[in-house]
């Protein structure tokens, strides 16, 4: 298995919002989905996940309710709100701009000004 990558600050919210864009999920399923979608490169630690979920719920980006998991265990399910869908769109666009700018620098034959 390849070594996992450290999540850059500010990316966890975006990844969680994207995971929840497919429908309501409990926390473990969100983390598992991020890990699988990244071919095992991005591993979300439990504490970071739940801190982020609570922060995003306080911001009104997600809502939650208790239900039963596929194992018939009590689990909290998280779902995007309208505000969360708008945040996902904005954060995804911001991230795309950031990545494009970083690649422009990386692909530059020489850095000017130094």
| Strand percentage | 5-15%
Which of globular, elongated, flat, extended, rod-shaped describes the shape?
elongated
Question: Can you count the helices?
Answer: 4
Strand order of the largest sheet: 1-3-2
User: Runs with pLDDT <50, length 5+?
Assistant: none
Name of the level-1 CATH class: Mainly Alpha
Distance between the termini: 40 Å
Q: What is the number of domains?
A: 1
The CATH architecture name reads: Orthogonal Bundle
CATH topology name: Arc Repressor Mutant, subunit A
Report the count of strand segments. 3
Mean pLDDT: 92
Largest sheet: 3 strands, antiparallel
The CATH superfamily bears the name: Winged helix-like DNA-binding domain superfamily/Winged helix DNA-binding domain
Instruction: Give the ordered list of helices and strands.
Output: HEHHEEH
Helix content: 40-55%
Compact description:
The chain has a 3-stranded antiparallel β-sheet with strand order 1-3-2. The protein contains 4 helices and 3 strands; from the N terminus they run H-E-H-H-E-E-H. With 114 residues, the chain is an alpha+beta fold.
